[in-house]
Amino acid sequence: MELLMRNMFQSLGKNTSANKLAKKYGLRFGAARFVAGDSIKAAIDAVKKLNSDGKVVTLDHLGEFVYTEEEALQSAAMCIQTLDAIEEAGVNSNLSLKMTSLGLDISKELCMRNMRNILDRARLYNNFVRIDMEDYEHCQISLDIYKELRREYDNVGIVIQAYLYRTEQDIADLNLLNANLRLVKGAYKESPAVAFPEKKDVDDNYKKIIKQHLLNGNYTAVASHDETMIEFTKSVVSEYNIPKEQFEFQMLYGICEDIQARLVKEGYKVRVYVPFGVDWFGYFMRRLAERPANVWFVLKNLLK
Question: Binding residues for substrate, per the UniProt record (predicted)?
Answer without folding.
Answer: 98, 286-287
